[in-house]
Amino acid sequence: MRVDLTGKTALITGASRGIGEAAARIMAGYGARVVLAARSKSDIERIAAEIGDAALAVVCDVSRYDDVQAAVDATVEHFGGLNVLVNNAGIIDPIARLDQSDPEAWGRVIDTNVKGVYHGLRAGIPAMKRSGGGVAINISSGAAISTLEGWSHYCASKAAVLSLTRAAHAENMQDNIRVVGLSPGTVATEMQRTIKASGINPVALLNWAWHISPDWAGEAIAWLTTDAAKEHDGGDFSLKSKENQRAIGLVA
Ligand code: NAP
Fold first, then answer.
1. Is the CB of 112 under 6 A from ligand 1?
2. Is the CB of 196 under 6 A from ligand 1?
3. Kind and range of the H or E element at 146?
4. Closest alpha carbon to 220 in 31, 9, 3, 73
5. Would the pTM count as exceeding 0.90?
6. Is 140 tagged catalytic?
7. pLDDT digits (tens, 9 = 90+) for 196-243
8. Which of 63, 65, 82, 97 sees the fewest Cβ atoms within 10 Å?
């Protein structure tokens, strides 16, 4: 199914590199106006300039509610509304066994990965309602339903994100707001470089060539905005499944 996002506006957190950057470029390619939100000002400004007039860069730390509300407000002010919210920003560092973890750093992962998604939904859903409805896509992980050594913070955070997906969808579907998660499998990004450097668990030992490209995750995000994806609402869509890859058109 061809994705057509003409006339739609998407706000993507964590758009300075990796999956978020790919999603912004791909959705813009499908006709969307895109707002790139992240902390790295020069990176989001460079990517937005490369995309052109259909893109806006907004500096935003998702762990701070005021920043996320300001990013939503800037989106509505600049492009007139909000139709797609991609809660993608996330971190895994520092990787450490729970009994050796630093409590402050553990909490920062929760502030980013869990509160960041909550902040996106809290600020974004009312704006999407005012725009007549929309889709929120929360980037999840297989870590939401399984655990790995050294990842207690990350697994707990992604389990919470899945719970937020379920809750937000149940509360808002009657207002034409869909909420769906994407579990992308392993993706060749900076995050996987951090994981590889840790050497701590089997994911760190995976052959780099097995990771999918960020573009596949970006295509999946774009596809999840379509009506064809509705059956996955309120849960995590896994990009590890060949059937799901086929539905998007990534494999024959
Ligand atoms: P990445 O290349 O490290 O990119 C992470 C992005 O998140 C960056 O743009 C970063 O931008 C942003 N970010 C981090 N903290 C932020 C904050 N406080 N406020 C705003 N933005 C913040 O990693 P990635 O692989 O693309 O990860 C994207 C998402 O996919 C994450 O949620 C991750 O958990 C998930 N995921 C990845 C994989 C994988 O194999 N790569 C697998 C499953 C799920 P700034 O540093 O500029 O703020």
1. yes
2. no
3. none
4. 3
5. yes
6. yes
7. 999 999 999 999 999 999 999 999 999 999 999 999 999 999 999 999
8. 97
